[in-house]
Design a protein that fits this description.
single chain, about 375 residues, alpha/beta, Rossmann fold, 2 domains, five-stranded parallel beta sheet, four-stranded parallel beta sheet, elongated
């Protein structure tokens, strides 16, 4: 059997992150008591106002960081991509806190990784600071020089893995926006949730755990069942036995269908972002799906794609709780996924979860007919 490994996506400026991530912080500038000098997530020293009221956030997930901190009222210019995407899109929960009035703000950028904004449009919004994600530091230096606005480098870290980089970005942005307490509250919640997930599952012996395959993983678009991920973060949080981990390769992978059959995982979780592709593939390859153990035993389930315009941390946590409850019902008997969804949404965004979360259910592959039942 063979398998090909996709290129792991690493944040622009990773060298800066590796050398300077632990030094991120804020210091008062010696010359002017109305400003302070911060060291951003690439180690750049940037002088920002002590009081920040007007913000432009550009790049995948920059606005999400602001929304997590409850500071969208400070945004004065938006990306066109934010306007194009459905404001109620459940795959991008922070969009649910963006009002109709918010969507009428001036457009300063087309949006997307590395897409510099319109310098003049930015200047017309008179921001106190520009916060960015997925930009090269040299681009930021150019943006800051051309607009005269302090420009800050933030990052989620490696796509699919939210760890220190995302937490340090939240912490730094919290200090810049006067939301330091809010940032610490979020970080404590994330750490508490991870500890809870670990405690529930760490003592289960491997022989008592079902094997799992995570398929149809969305990465720069949707893919069929052969798209998987070694070290799939929500699965790792609950110590799941991910069959892709046996390859001793990390990150996103494309696997031969025959390899999935050889693995014969007890359960399969499918990324809902790949739903349409999976349905087409099932129509053309019914025999393959019917040979899969998890399909025959009705142990196929759907998950939300938590990487959608960068990492939706709240959905990664919610995925982990659903995976845990599905694989180890005894250890998660006290967890109601609907109530947990409301708790997580309230914590991150101050809102209830959508009435119907379009995932977290069994997936049926019918004997007759062409449509998979989600």
């Amino acid at each position: 059997m063979t398998e090909s490994q996709a290129i792991r996506i690493r944040p622009i400026g990773l060298i800066c992150l590796l050398t300077l991530i632990l030094t991120t912080g804020v210091a008062v500038s010696g010359g002017d008591t109305n400003v302070r000098t911060i060291r951003d997530l690439c180690g750049r020293k940037v002088t920002v106002p002590k009081q920040v009221e007007r913000v432009v956030a550009i790049g995948p997930g920059a606005l999400r960081f602001v929304a997590y901190l409850g500071a969208v009222d400070k945004i004065v210019g938006i990306e066109n991509l934010e306007k194009k995407m459905d404001s109620t899109d459940s795959l991008r929960p922070y969009a649910r806190v963006l009002s109709k009035e918010f969507m009428k703000l001036p457009v300063v950028s087309v949006g997307g990784p590395g897409k510099l904004p319109d310098f003049e449009a930015v200047m017309l919004t008179r921001p106190d600071v520009i916060v960015t994600v997925s930009f090269d530091p040299s681009q930021l230096n150019n943006l800051q020089q051309k607009t005269g606005v302090p420009t800050v480098f933030l990052t989620y870290g490696e796509l699919g893995v939210w760890r220190k980089e995302a937490l340090n970005s939240l912490k730094l942005l919290g200090k810049i926006l006067g939301r330091a307490d809010r940032a610490q509250e979020l970080i404590r919640y994330m750490e508490s949730a991870e500890a809870d997930l670990k405690k529930r599952t760490e003592t289960i012996e491997k022989k008592d755990k079902p094997s799992v395959y995570f398929g149809g993983i969305s990465l720069k678009g949707a893919h069929d069942l052969t798209s998987t991920e070694a070290g799939y973060a929500p699965g790792t949080m609950v110590n799941a036995v991910n069959v892709a981990d046996t390859l001793e390769k990390a990150g996103h992978l494309f696997i031969d269908k025959e390899q999935i059959m050889v693995w014969a995982p007890d359960a399969i979780f499918i990324d809902l972002g790949s739903r349409n592709i999976l349905e087409r593939d099932f129509k053309n390859n019914r025999q393959f799906y019917r040979l899969l153990k998890a399909v025959r035993t009705n142990r196929v389930f759907s998950l939300l794609p938590y990487n959608y315009y960068n990492t939706n941390i709240e959905l990664a946590l919610l995925n982990a709780y659903f995976i845990g409850k599905t694989l180890y019902p005894g250890q998660f008997r006290d967890v109601d996924i609907r109530k947990k969804a409301d708790e997580i949404y309230r914590t991150f965004l101050g809102i209830e979860a959508p009435d119907e979360i379009p995932a977290y259910r069994a997936v049926k592959f019918p004997e007759h007919g062409e449509k998979i039942l989600w």
